[in-house]
Amino acid sequence: MADLKLSETRDLTRIERIGAHSHIRGLGLDSALEPRAVSEGMVGQTSARKAAGVILQMIKEGRIAGRAVLIAGQPGTGKTAIAMGMAKSLGLETPFAMISASEIFSLEMSKTEALMQSFRKAIGVRIKEETEVIEGEVVEVQIDRPAVAGAALKTGKLTMKTTEMEGVYDLGAKMIESLGKEKVQSGDVIAIDKPSGKVTKLGRSFSRSRDYDAIGPQVRFVQCPDGELQKRKEIVHCVTLHEIDVINSRTQGFLALFTGDTGEIRAEVREQIDTKVAEWREEGKAEIVPGVLFIDEVHMLDIECFSFLNRALENEMAPIVVVATNRGITTIRGTNYKSPHGIPIDLLDRLLIITTQPYTKDDIRKILDIRCQEEDVEMAEEAKALLTHIGVETSLRYAIHLITAAALACQKRKGKVVENEDITRVYNLFLDVKRSTQYLMEYQEQYMFSEASIGDGDEDGTNAMLS
Ligand SMILES: Nc1ncnc2c1ncn2[C@@H]1O[C@H](COP(=O)(O)OP(=O)(O)OP(=O)(O)O)[C@@H](O)[C@H]1O
Prior knowledge:
- This protein has about 475 residues and is an alpha/beta fold.
- The chain has 3 domains: about 140 residues, Rossmann fold (3-Layer(aba) Sandwich); about 160 residues, CATH 2.40.50.360; about 80 residues, Helicase, Ruva Protein, domain 3 (Orthogonal Bundle).
- The chain contains 15 helices and 17 strands.
- Helix 4 packs parallel to helix 9, helix 11 packs across helix 12 and helix 11 packs across helix 13.
- The longest helix has 17 residues.
- The two termini are about 45 Å apart.
- It binds adenosine-5'-triphosphate (ATP).
- The site of adenosine-5'-triphosphate (ATP) has 21 residues, from strand 2, helix 3 and helix 13.
């Protein structure tokens, strides 16, 4: 029974980990920004990857803040994959926020507020703080018990040492509580932040490594610090403007950061924060790190959002905005006008445009190979060739979806390697867009609100492919 439970949990976490883009680990470029054929999970699409690499370089050199990039191309040609590749190559220091344009239409906040929050999630502030710390090895913690229980506050003494000196500090009730919470005992190396009284346990002193107590697998041994007990230390915190907003918005509190339930943040709060951050920048205490905001399906934004974007990009702290769309010439939401990609011309004019190209058969084969590896699916060569053929005739995404389904069909017949029969089985079970449309054309009278007239749509009969 215990075994069963264990394997169930393992499977669940495994499923969660395999997202549509989990195989993408970067843009797959060499040091001269030339795309490698297959690298970091990326295949083909060389000129788009190269262009994305140049933009990445400009971002890293801080040269492109406030600009915007459009990745345009047919569905399933790797636009989101390239954005993910950029995010992975940026490193943890540069904030990256990702939204799909339709997410901003919610009842809880206005569209422009949702966009504003996304913008501020993509702007980092690196705050430098000098603080005084007491850092050393604990020699003794001595707590005096009050004569009558509860009569007076507890007091005590803390003796700490470095390799060069020893010092004794008086303890108040608050410090005693902090030390108790961290379970500090003699032999621990700790740091106390003097202004806030925050205690951090750095590890256990090497000199105590022979002690019989407190030695578990988690214990980290460290050297006893040298020099003075009290030191000035520079601490760097990296936060996003959105995090500062939420923490300072009186109605929310920082827990909202975890639930995502931040509600609207008042304009005054943001103004105050911007003024404060500007002061810190002047004093050399803080730096702005413009990150990347990726807006997928950008044609879903409406005219108000587009003018907000236009204005927001002018702000000196603006992040780099990368947008993607698979639309051609279409109506701009909220107007009767048509425009390329459904984006107003004035905004379009500011964008650096990267286009993605349809994949060749060879590229599709390689992407499917990578996905099979990512999903731990063993597939016969013949079956891979068939799946590639399906990918060419239908879409890459449909072929990717069939991998897991075919693996399940294979498991069901107790096979180890996915064969042609498994692919055929799931191909017949799940329709791709073309066959689904064809089916609708044939049976439309039996559906509700059907508006198409016979003869509309795509009639190339992909269905004949496997027969
Ligand atoms: N060049 C590539 N290398 C590796 N995997 C890729 C590549 N291009 C696309 N993929 C994978 O193919 C799938 C579909 O691609 P993706 O979602 O990026 O397409 P898209 O252009 O954003 O599509 P849409 O316009 O429908 O949003 C994803 O699982 C993606 O990770």
